Structures are given as structure tokens and as C-alpha cells.
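Supplementary Data S3. Sequence and C-alpha cells for construct A.
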Amino acid sequence: MSKRDELIAKYAADLKDKCGVNADMDLLTKVTIGCGPSIYNADASTVSGSDDSELATVKNNFLIKKLGLSDGADLDKGIEAVMEQYGKSNRNKYRAVVYYLLTKHFGKETVY
């Protein structure tokens, strides 16, 4: 099993255990690949739900640039809903899981 496959399995377990979501493994794999090498970096592989600058980066680089969504209050509400679903007290919010949940939240699976 490759390192990436191990991470995808870990993300799927996180989705099931912490978010109550049965992952679409095909989409999760594509989202994980889309994260690039950041998934192998301890700091870059996670998202801080309480860091406004990090959430702004998620909004600009992922929601607007990658998913092609228009900037607006609904993007902030979507990020807030995903952070709530993942669990605000959960310290390790994996970037790939957050991106997967955001992709599902906004119905943008076709991007992948």
C-alpha cells in the first residue's frame, strides 16, 4: 500500500468516525490527489478551523479558484458548516477531508 493510499484510508476513516459520512472513495481519491504534495507535510496537511487567515486561504484558493465559486457570504457559511460537521474541538482537520466536505457541500463533484 502506497503512502497516498494509506492517507486516503485515514481520511475515509476520519469522515466516517468524526463526520458520520460514508466517503465516495473515487471523489476522495481525486480530492486527495488534487491537494498535491501538501498531504505529506505535517503543517500543510491540516486546516486550522480557528485561524481566519487559513480559512481565507481555503476560501480563495480552493472554493474560488479550484471549484469556481463566486465570492460571497455563502462561502463563509459553507466553511463554517463544514468546520462544525468536522467538529470544532477536533484539532486535526485534514485538508483533504475539509476539501472533500466542501466539494460535497457545494455540489461541485463534477470539478473532479
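Construct B, processed identically:
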Amino acid sequence: MKNSQIILCVFVLGFVLVVAVGVYGQRPQNSRQSPGELIPQQILAILGAAGENGRTPAMRESYRRIFARMDSDRDKRLSREEFIEQGTYLTKRARTGIFVASDSNRDDVVSESGYIENRFITDEAKDIIGRMDADGSGRVSSKEFLDNSRVSDEQTARQIFRLLDTDKSGDLVTPEYLRVWGAWARAGRKRKMAGGGPQRLSSELMNLPEISGFEKNPTDRFVVDLATVRTGHPYKGTNANQPHTGAHIYFRVPDEPIPARDVQSFPAIYAVADGFISRVDEYFRQRESFSRTLGRPVANCRYGVSLSIAVNDDAAVNFHYSIEPMIDPEDLEFYRPFILVKRGQRVKKGDVIARMYLPPQADFARNAHIHFNLVDTGQRQFMAPTIFTKRINQQFHATWGSRGVDGGDQMPPCMGYCLSAPENPFGTAAKDRL
């Protein structure tokens, strides 16, 4: 997306309508706001979302019954097998997207509360967008959106459509718009205590800075030593031609394979800031993909660490390291020596928290990478890891080569490219680069 397009998008969305955001069916009055004042809930209100006010006890009970029918082993959790493979709701692709959105803590299962919360959001989205599908094709074209949405200003309607149309195809399908809608619906929700007051910070969180502080005081400690980096790319946001919710680091392939037992010889992975370890994944099996090297499908079994480095609205902001050797070692204990921290452990900026395992086969080692991003646990939102100094951004950019392209566009030095407002950790609206 070009700079002029981003500026136009942000400017047009600055015309918002000032009314009670949660009131369904009430057309707001025209008013002008600065671009930074537009929040996702205002966009949803313009489209006619009722949000919290649209939820009824009957709906909750209905979703609870549906959850119970899918929960075949009665363990109060839905596995991928139960939700995606055995499910009959929508398409498999749509169920996969809904499962990921419902799995708020990334433990690869969906709780009853997570399922119900996501159903409230997705059913309202499908109802509102679905009513715009005039020809019943299952897709909402740009013309259908302009003709049938509640957005009175045509320019505003066009810009909202472009934000929802993440694949730039010119029409909206269910899995596509649900990803954006879900992020918007969660973006401004505050964590509440049972009594309705603000959530009290834990002692660990009380010692962390606000995430906004990294905008003026970025960290000078990158994820790895830049000398070990072969190539990579930044976080590519919702507004990119080819969105990807994480930056990637690929490594220089050793001249000679490093024995797995020689853990200290593999590239170091650092704590990018002071904080505490909120999660450790010792062996996480991802979906299978075809390996040209082996001539058969192989699952990518990764390991990883989440480091809480800041807070936002009383919730932790985690720096998420997904460490992906792009192999299946077929051993649940294999990666354990490469993880050098435990959950709950406090770390200092620059501490070595893990080592990057590089497989002995050169083809696998070339594809081995670290996927990294920020996660706001309060809003359940993936965000760009835009916490590094300008010098680090420039040094990382120098390694990108052919990976530094988004469609046909060369990406400038940054850690976040073509970000929507929810993907900007500093809350300063959508950004072309950050």
C-alpha cells in the first residue's frame, strides 16, 4: 500500500459519528475527529454492531449447548480434532480461523468461555456483513458493501471495506473479514474484575513499563546477534498485500552441521527487554506441509517462549518467540535443552533465554527461523514488534534481500509494515511503517 493511500485511509476514517458506541441501529451524527481518535469500536458502531448490548442470556445458553455437543470427551475443552476435523459448522477453513481466534491463550484448545465469547463476536459479524450479500453468492463485493452498509459517507465506506478486504480481492468472504472484525471487537475491551472494577495488576506486572514507553525509549537488544542473520522480513500488517502476523529471522547455515548435543554452539536468542517468562512451549506440533527434501508431508514442530515486557490497560504485553526449526524430531524432549528459562522466571535485557536449533540438513537449516511479534493479552491482539532502535531496524533491513518485498512493493526499514490501528502497539492509529 502506498503512502498516499494510507494517508487517505486515515484521513477519511477521521470523520466519525459521535453517539453511544454500543447502541444498535442508531445512526450516529456526523462529526470530524483527528485520525488518532478513531478506534475500532467506533468503526463497528458505524457498521451497526451492538457489542455487549446485543448479548442475551438465551444466546449464551444456546452457545453453551452447542459447545457441549462438540465436546465429545466431556473435558470442557475443544481440541483441534473436535472443533475443526469433526465439526460441521461452515467450512473447514472457516472453522480453523474461528478456532485460532477462540484460542486466546494459544494453548491449542478452546475453553467454553472462549468459545462463547468468540461466537458472540463472529455471529454478529456474519449477520451484519451477510445482510449485505444481495445476490446470495456467499461473497460481499465492494458494490454490495457500498449499497447495503449503514455507512452514509461513500469514502468512509470504501476505506472500511479495504480494511476488511485483507487479500485485496475486491470481495469479502467469511474467514477473511472475521479475522479483522474479531481484532476490532477485542481491541478496546478492558479487563474487569467480577465486581466491575478495574483488574488489579499482579506484582509481576506492576514492575513492567507501559508499552507506549518503547516508542520514545526503544530497546537496543535485538532478538539474536545480527551477524547470525541471513535474511528476514518485518511484521506485515492487515493493510499489506501479503499480510503476515509476525516478523521472521532466517539464519546463516553453518559450514558444518552442529551436533544437537553441542547446545552452546547454536545461535543465542536474547531477552529483548527486562521482564518475566509468561509461557514456555517445549514441543508444539503445527500443521503438516510437503517437504521437497523428504518427498513427503512433514509437521513443523516448534518450541518457543513468551516474555512479558510491558503492560497495556492493566494487561501484559508479551514478546512472543516462536522458534521453528521446520522439522519434526519425533521426540517430545528434543528441544528442552535449547530452552534456558522457566515459566515465571525474571530475566534482564540481554540474557540468553534459548538457543536456535539448526537441523543438520542444509535445506531444513535454510528454512529454520524465528517468528516474533507482540501479543496484547488483554485485547487478545497480535501486534507488530516495533520496540527496537532505528539502527537495529536499518541493520535488519540490510539482510532482507528478496524477502523485503510485499507483492511488488519494496518494504522500507521498519519492524511493522502497513499496520492497521489494532496492530500498532502504541495506539497511534494505522501506520504505513513503524
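The chain has two domains: 1-189, 213-433. DSSP finds 13 helices and 21 strands in the chain.
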